Amino acid sequence: MADTPLKLSEVEHVKDGSNYLRGTLADSLVNPITGALNPDDTHLIKFHGSYQQTDRDLDSERKRQKLEPLYSLMIRVRVPGGIATSAQWRRMDELSKQYGNDTLKLTTRQTFQLHGVLKRNLKKTIHGFNQALMDSIAGCGDVNRNVMCNPNPYQSKVHAEVYEVSRQISDRLTPRTSAYWELWLDGEQQHISAPNEGEEDAEPIYGKTYLPRKFKIALAVPPHNDTDIFSNDVGLIAIEKKGQLLGFNVAIGGGMGMTFGMPDTYPRLADVIGFVPADKVVDVCEKILTIQRDWGNRENRKFSRLKYTLDRVGLDVFREELNKRLGFDLELGRAYKFESSGDAFGWSTGSDGAQHLTLFIEGGRVADRPGHTLKTALREIAAFHTGDFRLTGNQNLILANVAPEHKLTIQALLTEHGVVVTGNNLSGLRRGALACVALNTCSLAFAEAERYLPQLLDRLEDILKTYNLTEDDILLRMTGCPNGCARPYLGEIGLVGKSVGRYNLYLGAAFNGNRLNKLYKEMLDEDGIVQELTPLFADYAENRQPLERFGDFTVRRGYVQATTHGLNFHQ
Ligand code: SRM
Ligand code: SF4
Fold first, then answer.
1. If 148 and its partner were Cys, which of 227, 262, 280, 358 is the partner (CB 3.0–4.6 Å)?
2. Is 479 a pocket residue for ligand 2 (Cβ < 6 Å)?
3. Whether pTM exceeds 0.90
4. What is the pLDDT of residue 193?
5. Any ligand 1 atom below 6 A from CB of 498
6. Ligand 2 center to residue 91 CA distance, Å?
7. Any ligand 2 atom below 6 A from CB of 445
């Protein structure tokens, strides 16, 4: 019997007909009649690092006034491993003020986002990135996204080597199309390799329809899993011996997204499938990506991620194909141990004696607020800081390699601007909390997250105080929908927006990022969340075992069953 032809999803057709991501973007950008792009171009613009959005706070009022929604663009700048120079920070700060909403969002994948950029300013903004040697290509879209890595390579020689590997992976998997160069930079030289004049476009790794879906890679150096590697399509665990990087355990098939009411969609943690020496790891990433390119589902985008490909074909079949494409076999995975997935705040000293300061950035939002002028403080620091700015996967910021003569000045400036220098004066719950953007810009949000979490934390902190738990590090992650942008299914407490002001409560993830949580209660409002968590905190304070983490405790006490695989997340 002949195979039934594939019914490709709409996005596949758009990519196919786009001439390597051009589509009609050039026309869309100059069309003065609307603030929006042509519908097909809204898919293509993602590959250039941008999303068309509306201001959801204003949508209904504008509709009432018979106006089109207030369209604007979010732009995500790739920062492999999260490392930016002071000059780049200054540029992002300027561009956010000139063309955006005067805030910077530090994301859960170590990138910068600008929000609120009008269509007519998009080109000028991307041009501005280029002048500071930054780009937004592959910030979004069906390609390899920003490669995450422990953001502080000065911690040790191994960290520095691992960071270098993350850059190599990022370079290898960056799309080659000249559309980015042509559309945004008028052919001006850019720092990522552009094709030579007269050369035809080609995507040697991706092909003209790119990947079935987004693809994510993260690297971590045990014992810190601060990039949450198991939530990535490919997670690489550095294996070292006596300070020498030997290679990486390779984990595949992680992902957070799911859809309410569709139990065949689920978050899943990556499985370790073997070990590869460091000099071959970039090839391994490329081959995994090409298998997913060829085997991933291109009919229904809900099932397109590598995690579903893997659960369809099985790990053994996938590994066999990988070994075949590589021309060698992965070795057996090596022993490793992760202890935590959060950031450690305050001053630290690297193995070379250099000084670094990790700052807590609530919700990853760099903005000036009354009494807390963080954006100004960082701009002033960027004017003289000779080290760099490092974005962490937990939406925080490291001022790295602070010159000894600048330490006191930095400290004084931050204090003057009302910025908390160490995490010590924050509760453990707030220090580790993550919230996705959600309203007012995310078109998929059912509920608030970033704007609301601080208020909820105020109430939860009162309870923690009653039980003497203020200092305890407990991971709480909140999102405005089940897509999982703040990795909520890895929260010891996960709150996932279901409708305005209502959240599902998940419990029982592991503190080190290697176990998913499980649904505990549905559709809770703020009082409901507080009521459900109060007896849990009381029980934890009284009955936990020495050093027992909150997530482990909720499993041991039977509040939820442990999730052992994405496939039993909903059970
Ligand atoms: Fe995300 C879509 C924001 C990290 C899973 N994510 C979106 C969009 C673009 C909404 C949209 O499609 O219209 C959000 C833009 C909101 C806005 O206004 O800025 C958005 N995601 C974010 C960020 C900014 C959250 C944050 O507050 O930090 C993070 C940017 C990362 C970056 O710099 O590249 C962000 N998103 C993640 C993560 C976490 C991670 O990668 O470690 C995940 C879960 C991991 C994963 O991919 O499985 C994640 N985002 C999603 C999904 C669900 C994907 C899935 O396979 O089901 C969507 C929706 C989609 O792709 O259809 C999504
Ligand atoms: Fe938007 Fe949902 Fe992602 Fe939050 S989790 S940013 S609401 S897509």
1. 227
2. yes
3. yes
4. 57
5. no
6. 27
7. yes
Cα of 211 vs centre of ligand 1, distance in Å, is 17
Known catalytic residues are 76, 145, 214, 216, 436, 442, 481, 485
What's the pLDDT at 350? 84
Cβ–ligand 2 distance for 480 under 6 Å, the answer: yes
Q: What is the pLDDT of residue 530?
A: 98
Residues 6+ apart with CB under 8 A from 330: 250, 273, 274, 275, 276, 284, 319, 322, 323
Low-confidence ranges of the chain (pLDDT < 50): 1
Q: Is the CB of 296 under 6 A from ligand 1?
A: no
Handedness of CA 99, 105, 106, 108 (dihedral sign): negative
Q: To test the ligand 2 pocket, which listed residue (76, 259, 444, 499) has its Cβ within 8 A of the most ligand atoms?
A: 444
Where do the domains of the chain lie, and which CATH numbers do they carry?
A: 50-136+348-416 (3.90.480.10), 139-187+205-342 (3.30.413.10), 428-568 (3.30.413.10)
pLDDT in tens, 58-73: 888 898 899 999 999 9
**Could you give the CA distance from residue 96 to residue 115 in angstroms, rounded to a whole number?**
8
Which pLDDT tens digit goes with each residue over 181-213?
A: 999 998 665 655 555 665 678 899 999 999 999
Whole-number Å distance, alpha carbon 483 to ligand 1 midpoint, is 7
Residue 359 structure tokens: 């700052």
